[in-house]
Target: Cbb3-type cytochrome c oxidase subunit
Amino acid sequence: MSDFVSSFWHYYVLGLVILSLLYCGWVLVSNMSRRKPGPVELHDHVWDEDLQEYNNPLPRWWLYLFWATLIFGVVYFVLYPSLGNLPGKAGWTSANQYDAEVKKAEERYAPLFARFEKQDLAELAKDPEAQATGQRLFLNYCAQCHGADGQGSKGFPNLTDADWLYGGEPATIKTTILGGRQGVMPALGAAIGSDGTKDVANYVRSLSGLANDSLRAARGREIFAANCVACHGPEGKGNPALGAPNLTDKTWLYGSSEATIVETVTKGRQNQMPAFKDLVGESRVHVLAAYVLSIKKQ
Model:
Protein backbone atom coordinates (compact mmCIF):
# COMPACT_ATOMS: atom_id res chain seq x y z
CA MET A 1 0.00 0.00 0.00
CA SER A 2 2.94 2.37 0.51
CA ASP A 3 3.38 2.48 -3.28
CA PHE A 4 0.11 4.41 -3.66
CA VAL A 5 0.41 8.16 -3.18
CA SER A 6 -3.28 8.65 -2.38
CA SER A 7 -4.69 7.83 1.07
CA PHE A 8 -7.91 6.77 -0.67
CA TRP A 9 -6.57 3.24 -1.12
CA HIS A 10 -5.83 2.90 2.58
CA TYR A 11 -9.42 3.73 3.48
CA TYR A 12 -10.73 1.67 0.57
CA VAL A 13 -9.00 -1.49 1.80
CA LEU A 14 -9.82 -0.71 5.42
CA GLY A 15 -13.51 -0.23 4.65
CA LEU A 16 -13.68 -3.28 2.39
CA VAL A 17 -12.18 -5.56 5.06
CA ILE A 18 -14.37 -4.25 7.87
CA LEU A 19 -17.54 -4.48 5.77
CA SER A 20 -16.61 -8.04 4.78
CA LEU A 21 -16.18 -9.03 8.44
CA LEU A 22 -19.48 -7.44 9.40
CA TYR A 23 -21.26 -9.15 6.53
CA CYS A 24 -19.86 -12.54 7.57
CA GLY A 25 -21.03 -11.89 11.14
CA TRP A 26 -24.51 -10.97 9.91
CA VAL A 27 -24.68 -14.18 7.83
CA LEU A 28 -23.79 -16.21 10.93
CA VAL A 29 -26.31 -14.48 13.19
CA SER A 30 -29.08 -14.78 10.62
CA ASN A 31 -28.49 -18.52 10.42
CA MET A 32 -28.36 -19.23 14.14
CA SER A 33 -32.04 -20.24 14.28
CA ARG A 34 -32.73 -23.50 16.09
CA ARG A 35 -34.82 -26.38 14.84
CA LYS A 36 -38.52 -25.78 15.31
CA PRO A 37 -40.74 -28.51 16.74
CA GLY A 38 -42.89 -30.40 14.30
CA PRO A 39 -42.28 -31.51 10.74
CA VAL A 40 -39.50 -29.87 8.72
CA GLU A 41 -40.71 -27.72 5.86
CA LEU A 42 -39.56 -28.15 2.29
CA HIS A 43 -38.26 -25.32 0.15
CA ASP A 44 -40.43 -24.32 -2.76
CA HIS A 45 -37.76 -24.85 -5.44
CA VAL A 46 -37.58 -28.22 -7.20
CA TRP A 47 -34.73 -29.79 -9.20
CA ASP A 48 -34.90 -32.51 -11.80
CA GLU A 49 -38.69 -32.66 -11.59
CA ASP A 50 -39.00 -34.16 -8.07
CA LEU A 51 -35.93 -33.25 -5.96
CA GLN A 52 -36.59 -30.83 -3.06
CA GLU A 53 -34.50 -29.49 -0.18
CA TYR A 54 -35.50 -29.49 3.49
CA ASN A 55 -35.38 -26.17 5.30
CA ASN A 56 -33.06 -27.40 8.07
CA PRO A 57 -30.92 -24.96 10.05
CA LEU A 58 -27.18 -25.14 9.53
CA PRO A 59 -25.30 -27.65 11.72
CA ARG A 60 -24.06 -26.14 14.98
CA TRP A 61 -20.50 -27.41 14.45
CA TRP A 62 -20.39 -25.63 11.10
CA LEU A 63 -21.56 -22.36 12.65
CA TYR A 64 -19.04 -22.61 15.51
CA LEU A 65 -16.26 -23.31 13.02
CA PHE A 66 -17.30 -20.27 10.99
CA TRP A 67 -17.27 -18.13 14.16
CA ALA A 68 -13.78 -19.43 14.97
CA THR A 69 -12.45 -18.49 11.54
CA LEU A 70 -14.06 -15.06 11.79
CA ILE A 71 -12.47 -14.42 15.19
CA PHE A 72 -9.13 -15.68 13.89
CA GLY A 73 -9.41 -13.22 10.99
CA VAL A 74 -10.06 -10.29 13.33
CA VAL A 75 -7.08 -11.22 15.52
CA TYR A 76 -4.87 -11.62 12.44
CA PHE A 77 -5.89 -8.22 11.07
CA VAL A 78 -5.01 -6.60 14.38
CA LEU A 79 -1.60 -8.28 14.73
CA TYR A 80 -0.37 -8.17 11.11
CA PRO A 81 -0.37 -5.48 8.38
CA SER A 82 -3.65 -6.30 6.67
CA LEU A 83 -5.77 -3.18 7.09
CA GLY A 84 -4.54 -0.69 4.54
CA ASN A 85 -1.46 1.14 5.80
CA LEU A 86 -1.87 0.05 9.43
CA PRO A 87 1.35 -1.74 10.50
CA GLY A 88 -0.16 -4.28 12.88
CA LYS A 89 0.53 -4.69 16.59
CA ALA A 90 3.04 -7.54 16.16
CA GLY A 91 5.45 -5.32 14.21
CA TRP A 92 6.00 -7.95 11.51
CA THR A 93 6.91 -6.97 7.95
CA SER A 94 7.92 -9.09 4.98
CA ALA A 95 11.02 -6.89 4.52
CA ASN A 96 12.18 -7.57 8.08
CA GLN A 97 11.56 -11.29 7.69
CA TYR A 98 13.51 -11.31 4.42
CA ASP A 99 16.43 -9.45 6.00
CA ALA A 100 16.48 -11.89 8.91
CA GLU A 101 16.48 -14.89 6.56
CA VAL A 102 19.27 -13.38 4.45
CA LYS A 103 21.34 -12.70 7.58
CA LYS A 104 20.83 -16.26 8.77
CA ALA A 105 21.83 -17.63 5.35
CA GLU A 106 24.91 -15.40 5.26
CA GLU A 107 26.05 -16.69 8.63
CA ARG A 108 25.55 -20.27 7.49
CA TYR A 109 27.11 -20.09 4.02
CA ALA A 110 29.71 -17.33 4.40
CA PRO A 111 32.51 -19.76 5.44
CA LEU A 112 31.77 -21.97 2.42
CA PHE A 113 31.93 -19.08 -0.07
CA ALA A 114 35.00 -17.67 1.66
CA ARG A 115 36.75 -20.99 1.05
CA PHE A 116 35.63 -21.07 -2.57
CA GLU A 117 36.78 -17.48 -3.14
CA LYS A 118 40.36 -18.39 -2.26
CA GLN A 119 40.52 -20.93 -5.09
CA ASP A 120 41.49 -20.19 -8.67
CA LEU A 121 38.53 -20.15 -11.08
CA ALA A 122 39.91 -22.89 -13.30
CA GLU A 123 40.51 -25.08 -10.24
CA LEU A 124 37.14 -24.24 -8.76
CA ALA A 125 35.40 -25.20 -12.01
CA LYS A 126 36.50 -28.81 -11.37
CA ASP A 127 35.29 -28.91 -7.76
CA PRO A 128 32.03 -30.98 -7.57
CA GLU A 129 30.76 -29.12 -4.49
CA ALA A 130 31.43 -25.73 -6.09
CA GLN A 131 29.75 -26.87 -9.33
CA ALA A 132 26.63 -27.94 -7.45
CA THR A 133 26.50 -24.61 -5.62
CA GLY A 134 27.20 -22.68 -8.82
CA GLN A 135 24.45 -24.52 -10.65
CA ARG A 136 21.90 -23.49 -8.03
CA LEU A 137 23.06 -19.88 -8.35
CA PHE A 138 22.85 -20.15 -12.13
CA LEU A 139 19.30 -21.51 -12.01
CA ASN A 140 18.27 -18.67 -9.69
CA TYR A 141 19.89 -15.75 -11.49
CA CYS A 142 20.83 -16.75 -15.06
CA ALA A 143 18.47 -19.44 -16.37
CA GLN A 144 15.71 -16.92 -17.14
CA CYS A 145 17.80 -15.60 -20.06
CA HIS A 146 20.36 -18.28 -20.85
CA GLY A 147 18.17 -21.31 -20.15
CA ALA A 148 18.57 -23.97 -17.47
CA ASP A 149 21.20 -25.72 -19.60
CA GLY A 150 23.02 -22.47 -20.48
CA GLN A 151 22.37 -22.87 -24.21
CA GLY A 152 20.61 -19.53 -24.50
CA SER A 153 17.94 -18.54 -27.02
CA LYS A 154 17.36 -15.85 -29.63
CA GLY A 155 19.07 -12.70 -28.36
CA PHE A 156 20.66 -14.48 -25.39
CA PRO A 157 24.14 -16.02 -25.85
CA ASN A 158 24.83 -19.73 -25.64
CA LEU A 159 27.27 -20.23 -22.75
CA THR A 160 28.14 -23.81 -23.62
CA ASP A 161 29.91 -23.18 -26.94
CA ALA A 162 33.28 -21.62 -27.71
CA ASP A 163 31.93 -18.33 -29.10
CA TRP A 164 32.19 -15.42 -26.63
CA LEU A 165 31.44 -11.81 -27.51
CA TYR A 166 33.76 -10.38 -24.86
CA GLY A 167 36.06 -13.37 -24.49
CA GLY A 168 35.71 -16.62 -22.56
CA GLU A 169 38.72 -16.33 -20.28
CA PRO A 170 37.96 -17.00 -16.58
CA ALA A 171 38.70 -13.42 -15.49
CA THR A 172 36.60 -12.00 -18.34
CA ILE A 173 33.62 -14.18 -17.46
CA LYS A 174 33.81 -13.00 -13.85
CA THR A 175 34.10 -9.36 -14.96
CA THR A 176 31.02 -9.79 -17.16
CA ILE A 177 28.93 -11.19 -14.31
CA LEU A 178 30.13 -8.60 -11.81
CA GLY A 179 29.65 -5.48 -13.92
CA GLY A 180 27.28 -6.58 -16.66
CA ARG A 181 27.57 -5.64 -20.31
CA GLN A 182 25.87 -3.13 -22.56
CA GLY A 183 25.98 -4.16 -26.22
CA VAL A 184 24.93 -1.62 -28.85
CA MET A 185 24.60 -2.15 -32.60
CA PRO A 186 23.81 1.26 -34.15
CA ALA A 187 20.97 1.58 -36.64
CA LEU A 188 22.33 2.14 -40.16
CA GLY A 189 19.12 2.04 -42.15
CA ALA A 190 18.82 5.80 -42.53
CA ALA A 191 22.48 6.12 -43.54
CA ILE A 192 22.75 3.40 -46.20
CA GLY A 193 19.15 2.95 -47.34
CA SER A 194 17.06 -0.14 -47.91
CA ASP A 195 19.11 -1.39 -50.87
CA GLY A 196 22.30 -0.80 -48.90
CA THR A 197 21.08 -2.89 -45.99
CA LYS A 198 20.28 -5.78 -48.35
CA ASP A 199 23.70 -5.47 -49.97
CA VAL A 200 25.44 -5.52 -46.58
CA ALA A 201 23.29 -8.45 -45.44
CA ASN A 202 24.36 -10.49 -48.46
CA TYR A 203 28.00 -9.60 -47.91
CA VAL A 204 27.79 -10.58 -44.25
CA ARG A 205 26.20 -13.91 -45.22
CA SER A 206 29.05 -14.49 -47.65
CA LEU A 207 31.59 -14.06 -44.83
CA SER A 208 30.32 -17.22 -43.15
CA GLY A 209 29.75 -19.21 -46.33
CA LEU A 210 25.97 -18.79 -46.46
CA ALA A 211 24.00 -18.52 -49.69
CA ASN A 212 24.01 -14.96 -51.04
CA ASP A 213 23.45 -12.76 -54.06
CA SER A 214 26.97 -12.25 -55.41
CA LEU A 215 26.16 -8.88 -57.03
CA ARG A 216 24.67 -7.52 -53.82
CA ALA A 217 27.54 -8.99 -51.80
CA ALA A 218 30.06 -7.18 -54.01
CA ARG A 219 28.32 -3.86 -53.46
CA GLY A 220 27.85 -4.66 -49.79
CA ARG A 221 31.58 -5.13 -49.31
CA GLU A 222 32.22 -1.44 -50.00
CA ILE A 223 29.38 -0.38 -47.67
CA PHE A 224 30.73 -2.71 -44.99
CA ALA A 225 34.23 -1.20 -45.32
CA ALA A 226 32.82 2.30 -44.93
CA ASN A 227 30.42 1.65 -42.02
CA CYS A 228 31.15 -1.59 -40.17
CA VAL A 229 34.88 -2.26 -39.93
CA ALA A 230 35.32 0.06 -36.94
CA CYS A 231 33.58 -2.55 -34.77
CA HIS A 232 33.70 -5.82 -36.69
CA GLY A 233 37.15 -5.38 -38.23
CA PRO A 234 38.17 -5.36 -41.91
CA GLU A 235 37.68 -9.14 -42.16
CA GLY A 236 34.49 -9.21 -40.06
CA LYS A 237 36.08 -11.24 -37.26
CA GLY A 238 34.73 -8.94 -34.54
CA ASN A 239 36.32 -7.25 -31.55
CA PRO A 240 36.01 -8.76 -28.03
CA ALA A 241 37.00 -5.43 -26.48
CA LEU A 242 33.77 -3.93 -27.85
CA GLY A 243 31.66 -7.06 -27.73
CA ALA A 244 31.33 -6.87 -31.54
CA PRO A 245 30.50 -10.37 -32.84
CA ASN A 246 32.55 -12.38 -35.27
CA LEU A 247 30.61 -12.43 -38.55
CA THR A 248 32.71 -15.15 -40.16
CA ASP A 249 31.68 -18.06 -37.95
CA LYS A 250 28.31 -19.80 -37.86
CA THR A 251 27.15 -18.43 -34.50
CA TRP A 252 24.28 -15.97 -34.78
CA LEU A 253 22.62 -14.34 -31.79
CA TYR A 254 19.44 -13.33 -33.64
CA GLY A 255 19.59 -15.58 -36.70
CA SER A 256 21.39 -15.65 -40.04
CA SER A 257 18.55 -15.19 -42.50
CA GLU A 258 18.79 -12.25 -44.89
CA ALA A 259 15.64 -10.71 -43.41
CA THR A 260 17.01 -10.92 -39.85
CA ILE A 261 20.37 -9.40 -40.81
CA VAL A 262 18.59 -6.62 -42.74
CA GLU A 263 16.51 -5.93 -39.64
CA THR A 264 19.63 -5.79 -37.47
CA VAL A 265 21.45 -3.42 -39.81
CA THR A 266 18.39 -1.23 -40.31
CA LYS A 267 17.19 -0.90 -36.72
CA GLY A 268 20.29 -1.82 -34.72
CA ARG A 269 20.29 -3.90 -31.55
CA GLN A 270 20.36 -3.09 -27.83
CA ASN A 271 21.57 -5.89 -25.55
CA GLN A 272 22.08 -5.62 -21.80
CA MET A 273 23.61 -8.10 -19.41
CA PRO A 274 22.71 -6.96 -15.86
CA ALA A 275 25.40 -6.52 -13.21
CA PHE A 276 25.27 -8.98 -10.32
CA LYS A 277 27.96 -7.57 -8.03
CA ASP A 278 25.55 -5.79 -5.69
CA LEU A 279 22.74 -8.32 -6.02
CA VAL A 280 24.72 -11.53 -5.52
CA GLY A 281 28.04 -10.43 -4.01
CA GLU A 282 31.59 -11.04 -5.21
CA SER A 283 32.08 -14.35 -3.41
CA ARG A 284 28.98 -15.87 -5.02
CA VAL A 285 29.86 -14.39 -8.40
CA HIS A 286 33.23 -16.17 -8.10
CA VAL A 287 31.43 -19.51 -7.75
CA LEU A 288 28.94 -18.60 -10.47
CA ALA A 289 31.77 -17.72 -12.87
CA ALA A 290 33.44 -21.04 -12.11
CA TYR A 291 30.21 -22.88 -12.96
CA VAL A 292 29.86 -21.01 -16.27
CA LEU A 293 33.48 -21.88 -16.98
CA SER A 294 32.73 -25.54 -16.29
CA ILE A 295 29.87 -25.72 -18.83
CA LYS A 296 31.55 -23.81 -21.63
CA LYS A 297 33.18 -25.61 -24.51
CA GLN A 298 36.96 -25.42 -24.15
About this structure: DSSP finds 13 helices and four strands in the chain. The first strand starts at residue 42 and ends at 47. The radius of gyration is 33 Å. Residues 111-180+275-295 form a domain with the Cytochrome Bc1 Complex; Chain D, domain 2 fold (CATH 1.10.760.10).
